[in-house]
Amino acid sequence: MDFTLHKSVLNKQSSIQITGSKSESNRLLLLQALFPEFKLENVSNSDDSNLMAKALASKEQVVDIHHAGTAMRFLTAFFAVQEGREVTLTGSKRMKERPIKILVEALKDLGANITYLENHGYPPIKIKGKKLTQNKVTLKANVSSQYISALLLIASKLENGLELTLEGEITSIPYIKMTLSLLDEIGIESSFVNNTITVKPNTQHLLPKTLTVESDWSSASYYFSIVALTDVGTEITLTSYKENSLQGDSVLVDIYKAFGVETTFLNNSVVLKKKTQNLEPKSFNLVNAPDIAQTIAVTSFALGIACDLKGLHTLKIKETDRLVALKTEIEKLGGQVEITDKSLHLKPNKLYSVKKNSPVLEGLGEPIATYHDHRMAMAFAPLALKTGLVIEDALVVSKSYPTFWDDLKSIGFKITQ
Ligand SMILES: O=C(O)C1=C[C@@H](OP(=O)(O)O)[C@@H](O)[C@H](O)C1
Ligand SMILES: C=C(OP(=O)(O)O)C(=O)O
After folding, report:
1. Is residue 192 classed as helix, strand or coil in its secondary structure?
2. Position 354 pLDDT exceeds 50
3. Is 219 in the pocket of ligand 1 (CB under 6 A)?
4. d(C-alpha 409, C-alpha 226), whole Å
5. Which residues does the annotation say bind 3-phosphoshikimate (predicted)?
6. Is residue 290 lining ligand 1, measured as CB closer than 6 Å?
7. Looking at residue 356, what is its pLDDT?
8. Residue 290: CB within 6 Å of ligand 2?
9. Residues 45, 213, 29, CA angle at the centre, nearest 5°?
10. Sheet of 190-193: strands edge to edge?
């Protein structure tokens, strides 16, 4: 379903409760399946986390994980250690194009029984769960950190724990550290020194505990963008957040300072306030926070400023090729974008300052395609503060943030179907 976003004016002050982090939830749901003594609060209501919970509880022979990449990778490791269980793990058309070989090979090195059912190196896969006998493995760390987190999540269940040696430049490191911190919170010991991660085997009963998931920082990014596009003085409060987050995307606080957005932590909330108008060109390396690349590119485009983004090599294998998708959709609106396999350069534009000759400001323009990618829909939405636009297949946001459109309406966005 396509949504029309009419040119909107944001309320001067508003507040929003954002659902739990999808990344933290998916890890904790898996850990809870391995160690049922834990209770969880503020679990993400995203499609991906719902699919994860359903898959973990499923007794079926075929588990379909749709578009949920993290769930696909984590469940591959989970089912590999479910002794006596046989499962086919499959997903959407796009999931069958998202590589999983590095993880599958590492699990096989540890003793797992996994076979590819269609294309070598890609889902769907058949997993015959068994006891893994080895405890040392080396894997490439520059393609996706999800492979590493998947192994770490099951590591304490292996007889002798796990020693992982990471080869090459390590990508998305905060997600690996998040996994280790959550293991630590439930009482599983680990260390991460240079390129070696060690996880101790779990030998005793863990203490029962309630773990509260922090709200999702990637979802918060769209509000940073919205505040950056408003007049000085506008304020949005988001809950529930903490200053020492496990989520790497909390780097938004520093990044959006450069766009004139000030963030204040207050009890369990963050208050975002537009302080100054900063129209200097921007440059960021997002190797540690790939999921906010689309948000930042669109903020810069809407402000008409140049932006250089580096460290984007993982974007090509996400829900869609996000580099190509960003270029195509920004250029549809009249912007100019250059991309390589790991970077994006947005040229400054005058679309939003010079009204005449602006294809965007004269009407709704061509619809923005979303390519089954929730972050395409959400990243382009803040543009409605500058111009009307149509977003195709807008319900795609439910992959990570099902109430996104209702929340935007509550802060002043005018949206019709
Ligand atoms: O472990 C996780 O929860 C995630 C890791 C990142 O993936 P990569 O390591 O593939 O960049 C990120 O993009 C994804 O949305 C969530
Ligand atoms: C890349 C993402 O998710 P996944 O890899 O889990 O599909 C995302 O949410 O931006």
Report:
1. strand
2. no
3. no
4. 13
5. 22-23, 27, 144-146, 172, 291, 318
6. yes
7. 42
8. no
9. 65
10. 136-140, 162-167, 196-199, 190-193
Is residue 358's pLDDT more than 90? Answer: no
Handedness of CA 391, 397, 402, 404 (dihedral sign): negative
Q: What is the pLDDT of residue 327?
A: 98
Nearest CA to 48 among 28, 18, 69?
Answer: 69
CB of 76 closer than 8 Å to CB of 116? no
pLDDT band for position 145 (50/70/90)? very high
Active site residues: 291
Looking at the chain, the domain(s) classified CATH 3.65.10.10 span 3-19+215-416, 22-212
The CATH number that domain 22-212 falls under is 3.65.10.10
CA of 354 to the centre of ligand 1 (A): 39
Closest ligand 1 atom to 179 CA = 1
- Predicted-complex ipTM score: 0.99
**Cβ 28 vs Cβ 213: under 8 Å:** yes
Question: Ligand 2 centre and the CA of 354: distance in Å?
Answer: 36
Question: What is 3-19+215-416's CATH topology?
Answer: UDP-n-acetylglucosamine1-carboxyvinyl-transferase; Chain (3.65.10)
- Report yes or no on whether pTM surpasses 0.95: yes
Q: How confident is the model at residue 352 (pLDDT cuts 50, 70, 90)?
A: low
| Cα-based distances in Å from 67 to 88, 114, 186, 363, 399 | 16, 21, 29, 33, 8
Give the chain's mean pLDDT.
Answer: 95
pLDDT at 359: 46
Instruction: Check the annotation: does 146 bind a ligand.
Output: yes
Give the other-Cβ count within 10 Å of 363's Cβ.
10
Provide Rg for the chain, Cα atoms: 22
* 399 Cα: distance to centroid of ligand 2 (angstroms): 9
Position 351 scores a pLDDT of: 67
| Ligand 2 and 69: CB distance under 6 A | yes
